[in-house]
Design goal:
With about 425 residues, this protein is of the alpha+beta class. The chain folds into three domains: about 140 residues, no CATH class; about 100 residues, SH3 type barrels (Roll); about 140 residues, 2-Layer Sandwich (Alpha-Beta Plaits), CATH 3.30.70.100. The chain contains 17 helices and eight strands. The protein has a five-stranded antiparallel β-sheet. A hairpin with a 3-residue loop joins strand 2 and strand 3. The longest helix is centred in the N-terminal third of the chain and has 40 residues. The radius of gyration is 41 Å and the shape is rod-shaped. The chain starts with 7 loop residues before the first helix and ends with a helix.
Amino acid sequence: MKFTQINTNDVIQSWGNSYSGTIDKLLNSLGIEGTILHLSKMIIISFSLAIFCFIADFIARKIILVSIERIIKKTKNTWDDVLIEKKVFKHVAHIFPAVLIGVLAPVLYEGHPDWILALEKISEIYLTIAFILTIVAFFKAFQFYLESRPFLKGKPMDSYMQLIRLIVYILGGIYIISILVDKSPMGIFSALGAMSVVLMLVFKDTILGFVGSIQIAANDMVKIGDWVEFPKFGADGDVIEIKLQTVKVQNWDKTITTIPTYSFVSDAFKNWRGMSESGGRRIKRSISLDMNSVKFCDNTLLHKLEKIDLLKDYFDEKTKEIESFNSGKDITHSANIRQLTNLGSFRAYLEKYLSINKQISDEMTFLVRQLAPNEKGLPIEIYVFSSEQRWAHYEAIQADIFDHIIAILPEFELNVFQVPSGNDFKKLSDN
Protein backbone atom coordinates (compact mmCIF):
# COMPACT_ATOMS: atom_id res chain seq x y z
CA MET A 1 0.00 0.00 0.00
CA LYS A 2 1.36 3.40 -0.98
CA PHE A 3 0.89 6.36 1.34
CA THR A 4 0.83 9.84 -0.12
CA GLN A 5 2.37 12.59 2.01
CA ILE A 6 -0.08 15.43 2.44
CA ASN A 7 1.30 18.96 2.60
CA THR A 8 -0.78 20.99 5.08
CA ASN A 9 0.05 24.28 3.38
CA ASP A 10 -1.13 22.92 0.02
CA VAL A 11 -4.39 21.77 1.56
CA ILE A 12 -5.01 25.17 3.17
CA GLN A 13 -4.04 26.96 -0.05
CA SER A 14 -6.38 24.77 -2.08
CA TRP A 15 -9.22 25.36 0.36
CA GLY A 16 -8.58 29.10 0.28
CA ASN A 17 -8.65 29.25 -3.50
CA SER A 18 -11.85 27.20 -3.57
CA TYR A 19 -13.49 29.41 -0.93
CA SER A 20 -12.44 32.60 -2.71
CA GLY A 21 -13.73 31.25 -6.04
CA THR A 22 -17.04 30.34 -4.42
CA ILE A 23 -17.48 33.88 -3.14
CA ASP A 24 -16.67 35.30 -6.60
CA LYS A 25 -19.29 33.07 -8.21
CA LEU A 26 -21.87 34.03 -5.59
CA LEU A 27 -21.31 37.75 -6.08
CA ASN A 28 -21.27 37.42 -9.88
CA SER A 29 -24.57 35.57 -9.74
CA LEU A 30 -25.98 38.53 -7.89
CA GLY A 31 -24.80 40.86 -10.60
CA ILE A 32 -22.11 42.56 -8.51
CA GLU A 33 -19.02 43.61 -10.46
CA GLY A 34 -16.08 45.99 -10.42
CA THR A 35 -15.11 47.91 -7.29
CA ILE A 36 -18.27 46.86 -5.48
CA LEU A 37 -17.31 43.22 -6.10
CA HIS A 38 -13.88 43.69 -4.60
CA LEU A 39 -15.21 45.56 -1.56
CA SER A 40 -18.02 43.04 -0.99
CA LYS A 41 -15.58 40.15 -1.27
CA MET A 42 -13.28 41.71 1.38
CA ILE A 43 -16.23 42.25 3.72
CA ILE A 44 -17.46 38.65 3.31
CA ILE A 45 -13.97 37.23 3.80
CA SER A 46 -13.41 39.39 6.89
CA PHE A 47 -16.78 38.38 8.31
CA SER A 48 -16.01 34.72 7.56
CA LEU A 49 -12.64 34.98 9.25
CA ALA A 50 -14.30 36.45 12.34
CA ILE A 51 -16.77 33.53 12.40
CA PHE A 52 -13.92 31.03 12.03
CA CYS A 53 -12.11 32.63 14.96
CA PHE A 54 -15.27 32.55 17.06
CA ILE A 55 -15.78 28.86 16.27
CA ALA A 56 -12.12 28.08 17.06
CA ASP A 57 -12.39 29.94 20.37
CA PHE A 58 -15.65 28.16 21.23
CA ILE A 59 -14.22 24.72 20.45
CA ALA A 60 -11.07 25.48 22.43
CA ARG A 61 -12.95 26.75 25.51
CA LYS A 62 -16.07 24.60 25.58
CA ILE A 63 -14.79 21.30 24.28
CA ILE A 64 -11.01 20.93 24.44
CA LEU A 65 -10.36 22.84 27.68
CA VAL A 66 -13.42 21.44 29.44
CA SER A 67 -12.19 17.93 28.64
CA ILE A 68 -8.70 18.80 29.91
CA GLU A 69 -10.14 20.26 33.14
CA ARG A 70 -12.21 17.13 33.75
CA ILE A 71 -9.11 14.98 33.38
CA ILE A 72 -7.10 17.25 35.72
CA LYS A 73 -9.79 17.19 38.43
CA LYS A 74 -9.59 13.40 38.50
CA THR A 75 -5.84 13.40 39.21
CA LYS A 76 -4.46 13.16 42.75
CA ASN A 77 -2.23 16.20 42.35
CA THR A 78 -3.41 19.51 43.78
CA TRP A 79 -1.12 21.92 41.97
CA ASP A 80 -2.86 21.34 38.64
CA ASP A 81 -6.22 22.17 40.27
CA VAL A 82 -4.78 25.59 41.05
CA LEU A 83 -4.22 26.14 37.32
CA ILE A 84 -7.95 25.65 36.78
CA GLU A 85 -8.90 27.85 39.72
CA LYS A 86 -6.73 30.72 38.48
CA LYS A 87 -8.14 30.30 34.89
CA VAL A 88 -4.78 29.61 33.25
CA PHE A 89 -6.35 27.40 30.57
CA LYS A 90 -8.96 30.05 29.81
CA HIS A 91 -6.21 32.34 28.58
CA VAL A 92 -4.58 29.49 26.65
CA ALA A 93 -7.81 29.15 24.64
CA HIS A 94 -7.33 32.64 23.19
CA ILE A 95 -4.15 31.48 21.46
CA PHE A 96 -6.11 29.35 18.98
CA PRO A 97 -7.98 32.24 17.23
CA ALA A 98 -4.72 34.17 16.96
CA VAL A 99 -2.98 31.23 15.32
CA LEU A 100 -5.97 30.74 13.01
CA ILE A 101 -5.80 34.37 11.81
CA GLY A 102 -2.08 33.99 11.08
CA VAL A 103 -2.70 30.80 9.08
CA LEU A 104 -5.79 31.82 7.07
CA ALA A 105 -5.02 35.50 6.37
CA PRO A 106 -2.36 34.84 3.64
CA VAL A 107 -4.73 32.37 1.96
CA LEU A 108 -8.01 34.28 2.14
CA TYR A 109 -6.47 37.64 1.26
CA GLU A 110 -4.17 36.37 -1.51
CA GLY A 111 -3.28 39.19 -3.87
CA HIS A 112 -3.88 41.83 -1.19
CA PRO A 113 -0.53 42.27 0.58
CA ASP A 114 -1.66 45.28 2.60
CA TRP A 115 -4.53 43.34 4.13
CA ILE A 116 -2.29 40.34 4.80
CA LEU A 117 0.37 42.49 6.48
CA ALA A 118 -2.23 44.24 8.67
CA LEU A 119 -3.88 40.98 9.72
CA GLU A 120 -0.54 39.29 10.39
CA LYS A 121 0.38 42.16 12.71
CA ILE A 122 -3.03 41.94 14.41
CA SER A 123 -2.61 38.19 14.75
CA GLU A 124 0.89 38.55 16.22
CA ILE A 125 -0.22 41.25 18.66
CA TYR A 126 -3.26 39.20 19.66
CA LEU A 127 -1.06 36.13 20.14
CA THR A 128 1.42 38.15 22.23
CA ILE A 129 -1.33 39.51 24.49
CA ALA A 130 -2.83 36.03 24.92
CA PHE A 131 0.63 34.67 25.73
CA ILE A 132 1.27 37.45 28.27
CA LEU A 133 -2.07 36.85 30.00
CA THR A 134 -1.35 33.11 30.10
CA ILE A 135 2.06 33.64 31.72
CA VAL A 136 0.65 36.12 34.25
CA ALA A 137 -2.18 33.73 35.14
CA PHE A 138 0.34 30.90 35.53
CA PHE A 139 2.48 32.90 37.94
CA LYS A 140 -0.62 33.87 39.94
CA ALA A 141 -1.44 30.18 40.24
CA PHE A 142 2.17 29.45 41.16
CA GLN A 143 2.05 32.16 43.83
CA PHE A 144 -1.16 30.73 45.29
CA TYR A 145 0.42 27.28 45.40
CA LEU A 146 3.60 28.56 47.10
CA GLU A 147 1.62 30.54 49.70
CA SER A 148 -0.22 27.35 50.65
CA ARG A 149 3.09 25.66 51.58
CA PRO A 150 3.72 25.76 55.36
CA PHE A 151 7.41 26.65 55.07
CA LEU A 152 6.59 29.70 52.92
CA LYS A 153 3.64 30.94 54.99
CA GLY A 154 3.90 34.65 55.70
CA LYS A 155 6.71 35.21 53.17
CA PRO A 156 6.29 38.20 50.81
CA MET A 157 5.72 36.02 47.74
CA ASP A 158 3.42 38.65 46.27
CA SER A 159 6.35 41.06 45.99
CA TYR A 160 8.40 38.67 43.88
CA MET A 161 5.48 37.66 41.70
CA GLN A 162 4.53 41.30 41.23
CA LEU A 163 8.05 41.99 39.94
CA ILE A 164 7.88 39.00 37.58
CA ARG A 165 4.53 40.17 36.24
CA LEU A 166 5.96 43.66 35.74
CA ILE A 167 8.90 42.23 33.76
CA VAL A 168 6.52 40.13 31.63
CA TYR A 169 4.35 43.19 30.89
CA ILE A 170 7.41 45.29 29.98
CA LEU A 171 8.87 42.63 27.69
CA GLY A 172 5.47 42.00 26.12
CA GLY A 173 4.91 45.74 25.61
CA ILE A 174 8.33 46.13 23.96
CA TYR A 175 7.59 43.20 21.64
CA ILE A 176 4.21 44.69 20.65
CA ILE A 177 5.86 48.04 19.94
CA SER A 178 8.46 46.27 17.77
CA ILE A 179 5.62 44.67 15.76
CA LEU A 180 3.87 48.01 15.24
CA VAL A 181 7.00 49.90 14.16
CA ASP A 182 8.35 46.89 12.27
CA LYS A 183 11.68 46.86 14.10
CA SER A 184 13.64 44.24 16.00
CA PRO A 185 12.94 44.02 19.76
CA MET A 186 16.70 44.31 20.29
CA GLY A 187 16.59 47.66 18.54
CA ILE A 188 13.90 48.80 20.97
CA PHE A 189 16.04 47.59 23.88
CA SER A 190 19.01 49.53 22.52
CA ALA A 191 16.93 52.69 22.43
CA LEU A 192 15.75 52.05 25.97
CA GLY A 193 19.37 51.55 27.05
CA ALA A 194 20.09 55.13 26.10
CA MET A 195 17.22 56.15 28.37
CA SER A 196 18.47 54.10 31.32
CA VAL A 197 18.87 57.18 33.53
CA VAL A 198 15.31 58.27 32.86
CA LEU A 199 14.06 54.72 33.46
CA MET A 200 15.95 54.56 36.76
CA LEU A 201 14.15 57.71 37.89
CA VAL A 202 10.76 56.47 36.69
CA PHE A 203 11.13 53.06 38.33
CA LYS A 204 13.06 54.24 41.39
CA ASP A 205 10.32 53.26 43.83
CA THR A 206 9.90 49.89 42.14
CA ILE A 207 13.63 49.16 42.33
CA LEU A 208 13.84 50.24 45.98
CA GLY A 209 10.74 48.17 46.74
CA PHE A 210 12.27 45.12 45.12
CA VAL A 211 15.53 45.54 47.06
CA GLY A 212 13.53 46.03 50.26
CA SER A 213 11.44 42.92 49.60
CA ILE A 214 14.56 40.81 49.10
CA GLN A 215 16.13 42.09 52.33
CA ILE A 216 12.89 41.62 54.26
CA ALA A 217 12.59 38.02 53.08
CA ALA A 218 16.29 37.19 53.45
CA ASN A 219 16.50 38.58 57.00
CA ASP A 220 12.98 37.52 58.00
CA MET A 221 12.32 41.06 59.19
CA VAL A 222 8.56 41.05 58.76
CA LYS A 223 5.88 38.75 57.39
CA ILE A 224 2.11 38.69 57.05
CA GLY A 225 0.43 38.41 60.43
CA ASP A 226 3.21 40.14 62.38
CA TRP A 227 2.31 42.86 64.85
CA VAL A 228 4.52 45.85 63.98
CA GLU A 229 4.86 49.31 65.45
CA PHE A 230 6.16 52.00 63.09
CA PRO A 231 6.01 55.42 64.82
CA LYS A 232 7.24 57.32 61.75
CA PHE A 233 4.09 56.39 59.82
CA GLY A 234 1.78 56.13 62.82
CA ALA A 235 1.32 52.39 62.25
CA ASP A 236 0.57 50.00 65.10
CA GLY A 237 -1.13 46.75 64.14
CA ASP A 238 -0.98 43.60 62.04
CA VAL A 239 0.71 43.29 58.64
CA ILE A 240 -1.99 42.19 56.18
CA GLU A 241 -0.25 42.59 52.84
CA ILE A 242 3.32 42.80 51.54
CA LYS A 243 3.64 44.09 47.97
CA LEU A 244 6.58 45.08 45.82
CA GLN A 245 6.34 48.75 46.71
CA THR A 246 4.13 48.88 49.81
CA VAL A 247 3.31 47.06 53.02
CA LYS A 248 -0.21 47.41 54.44
CA VAL A 249 -0.70 47.47 58.21
CA GLN A 250 -4.15 47.23 59.78
CA ASN A 251 -4.05 49.30 62.94
CA TRP A 252 -5.94 48.36 66.10
CA ASP A 253 -8.63 50.93 65.25
CA LYS A 254 -9.12 49.06 61.92
CA THR A 255 -7.58 51.87 59.87
CA ILE A 256 -5.06 50.92 57.19
CA THR A 257 -1.57 52.41 57.00
CA THR A 258 0.42 51.97 53.80
CA ILE A 259 4.18 51.99 54.29
CA PRO A 260 6.86 51.94 51.54
CA THR A 261 8.55 48.53 51.56
CA TYR A 262 12.04 49.96 51.63
CA SER A 263 11.25 51.89 54.83
CA PHE A 264 11.38 48.60 56.75
CA VAL A 265 15.06 48.46 55.80
CA SER A 266 16.02 52.11 56.12
CA ASP A 267 13.97 53.12 59.19
CA ALA A 268 13.54 51.73 62.71
CA PHE A 269 10.39 49.81 63.59
CA LYS A 270 9.33 47.32 66.25
CA ASN A 271 8.19 43.80 65.44
CA TRP A 272 6.31 42.07 68.25
CA ARG A 273 6.63 38.63 66.68
CA GLY A 274 9.16 37.53 69.30
CA MET A 275 6.64 38.26 72.02
CA SER A 276 3.91 36.40 70.15
CA GLU A 277 6.10 33.36 69.68
CA SER A 278 7.35 33.39 73.29
CA GLY A 279 4.01 32.32 74.70
CA GLY A 280 3.76 35.32 77.02
CA ARG A 281 3.15 39.06 77.05
CA ARG A 282 5.17 41.44 79.16
CA ILE A 283 3.69 43.32 82.09
CA LYS A 284 6.00 46.22 82.91
CA ARG A 285 4.32 48.73 85.14
CA SER A 286 5.26 50.55 88.33
CA ILE A 287 3.51 52.24 91.18
CA SER A 288 5.09 55.20 93.02
CA LEU A 289 5.06 55.11 96.83
CA ASP A 290 5.33 58.03 99.20
CA MET A 291 8.82 57.71 100.69
CA ASN A 292 7.60 59.29 103.93
CA SER A 293 5.47 56.21 104.55
CA VAL A 294 8.45 53.79 104.45
CA LYS A 295 9.43 52.69 107.99
CA PHE A 296 10.57 49.86 110.22
CA CYS A 297 7.86 47.46 111.29
CA ASP A 298 6.83 47.88 114.90
CA ASN A 299 5.32 45.05 116.92
CA THR A 300 1.78 46.10 116.11
CA LEU A 301 2.42 46.11 112.37
CA LEU A 302 4.42 42.86 112.56
CA HIS A 303 1.61 41.17 114.42
CA LYS A 304 -0.86 42.28 111.72
CA LEU A 305 1.37 41.22 108.81
CA GLU A 306 2.14 37.82 110.34
CA LYS A 307 -1.51 36.90 109.85
CA ILE A 308 -1.07 37.08 106.04
CA ASP A 309 -0.68 33.48 104.81
CA LEU A 310 1.59 34.45 101.90
CA LEU A 311 4.11 36.03 104.30
CA LYS A 312 4.37 33.26 106.94
CA ASP A 313 7.38 31.55 105.33
CA TYR A 314 9.02 34.92 104.71
CA PHE A 315 8.65 36.03 108.33
CA ASP A 316 9.85 32.67 109.70
CA GLU A 317 12.99 32.86 107.60
CA LYS A 318 13.66 36.56 108.17
CA THR A 319 12.99 36.39 111.93
CA LYS A 320 15.63 33.68 112.40
CA GLU A 321 18.07 35.57 110.18
CA ILE A 322 17.56 38.88 112.01
CA GLU A 323 17.73 37.32 115.51
CA SER A 324 20.99 35.64 114.58
CA PHE A 325 22.43 38.92 113.29
CA ASN A 326 21.22 41.02 116.22
CA SER A 327 22.53 38.61 118.84
CA GLY A 328 24.92 40.49 121.11
CA LYS A 329 24.25 43.88 119.46
CA ASP A 330 23.20 47.09 121.21
CA ILE A 331 19.50 47.09 120.42
CA THR A 332 18.89 50.52 121.95
CA HIS A 333 19.70 52.17 118.62
CA SER A 334 18.02 51.09 115.41
CA ALA A 335 21.19 51.69 113.38
CA ASN A 336 22.97 48.86 115.19
CA ILE A 337 20.53 46.15 114.31
CA ARG A 338 18.56 44.76 111.39
CA GLN A 339 14.80 45.18 111.30
CA LEU A 340 12.00 44.38 108.96
CA THR A 341 10.56 47.25 106.92
CA ASN A 342 7.03 47.64 105.63
CA LEU A 343 8.40 48.16 102.11
CA GLY A 344 10.56 45.02 102.18
CA SER A 345 7.62 43.03 103.51
CA PHE A 346 5.42 44.49 100.78
CA ARG A 347 7.87 43.47 98.02
CA ALA A 348 8.03 39.94 99.49
CA TYR A 349 4.24 39.84 99.49
CA LEU A 350 4.07 40.93 95.85
CA GLU A 351 6.50 38.18 94.81
CA LYS A 352 4.42 35.54 96.57
CA TYR A 353 1.16 36.98 95.27
CA LEU A 354 2.35 36.96 91.67
CA SER A 355 3.97 33.51 91.94
CA ILE A 356 0.64 31.86 92.79
CA ASN A 357 -1.18 33.69 89.98
CA LYS A 358 -1.78 31.04 87.31
CA GLN A 359 -2.03 33.75 84.64
CA ILE A 360 1.59 34.77 85.21
CA SER A 361 4.29 32.74 83.43
CA ASP A 362 6.88 31.18 85.73
CA GLU A 363 9.17 30.30 82.81
CA MET A 364 9.97 33.88 81.80
CA THR A 365 11.44 36.94 83.50
CA PHE A 366 9.93 37.45 86.95
CA LEU A 367 10.90 40.60 88.86
CA VAL A 368 9.51 42.83 91.58
CA ARG A 369 12.07 45.59 91.78
CA GLN A 370 12.64 48.94 93.38
CA LEU A 371 13.62 51.71 90.97
CA ALA A 372 15.53 54.89 91.72
CA PRO A 373 13.52 57.39 93.75
CA ASN A 374 12.55 60.65 92.07
CA GLU A 375 10.42 63.73 92.62
CA LYS A 376 7.31 61.58 92.17
CA GLY A 377 8.16 59.10 94.92
CA LEU A 378 9.70 55.62 95.07
CA PRO A 379 8.68 53.42 92.11
CA ILE A 380 8.06 49.72 92.71
CA GLU A 381 8.01 47.99 89.34
CA ILE A 382 6.49 44.71 88.35
CA TYR A 383 8.31 43.05 85.46
CA VAL A 384 6.62 39.76 84.62
CA PHE A 385 4.95 38.00 81.68
CA SER A 386 1.33 37.00 81.43
CA SER A 387 0.57 33.64 79.87
CA GLU A 388 -2.33 35.27 78.03
CA GLN A 389 -1.50 37.21 74.85
CA ARG A 390 -4.95 38.36 73.80
CA TRP A 391 -5.05 42.10 74.26
CA ALA A 392 -8.29 42.43 76.22
CA HIS A 393 -7.44 39.50 78.54
CA TYR A 394 -3.89 40.79 79.02
CA GLU A 395 -5.18 44.23 80.05
CA ALA A 396 -7.67 42.61 82.46
CA ILE A 397 -4.89 40.59 84.14
CA GLN A 398 -2.71 43.68 84.47
CA ALA A 399 -5.58 45.74 85.86
CA ASP A 400 -6.52 43.04 88.43
CA ILE A 401 -2.94 42.96 89.71
CA PHE A 402 -2.70 46.70 90.25
CA ASP A 403 -6.22 46.93 91.64
CA HIS A 404 -5.06 44.55 94.34
CA ILE A 405 -1.76 46.35 94.89
CA ILE A 406 -3.40 49.74 95.44
CA ALA A 407 -6.03 48.24 97.73
CA ILE A 408 -3.54 46.22 99.86
CA LEU A 409 -1.02 49.05 100.43
CA PRO A 410 -2.77 50.44 103.58
CA GLU A 411 -2.28 47.01 105.23
CA PHE A 412 1.46 47.68 105.06
CA GLU A 413 0.96 51.29 106.15
CA LEU A 414 2.32 52.49 102.82
CA ASN A 415 0.89 55.39 100.83
CA VAL A 416 0.68 55.88 97.09
CA PHE A 417 2.36 59.03 95.87
CA GLN A 418 0.29 61.24 93.61
CA VAL A 419 0.29 64.90 92.72
CA PRO A 420 -2.17 66.76 94.97
CA SER A 421 -5.50 67.42 93.34
CA GLY A 422 -8.03 70.20 93.95
CA ASN A 423 -9.92 67.91 96.31
CA ASP A 424 -6.76 67.48 98.44
CA PHE A 425 -6.36 71.25 98.79
CA LYS A 426 -10.05 71.57 99.64
CA LYS A 427 -9.62 69.12 102.51
CA LEU A 428 -6.69 71.15 103.83
CA SER A 429 -8.68 74.37 103.69
CA ASP A 430 -11.59 72.71 105.48
CA ASN A 431 -9.26 71.67 108.30
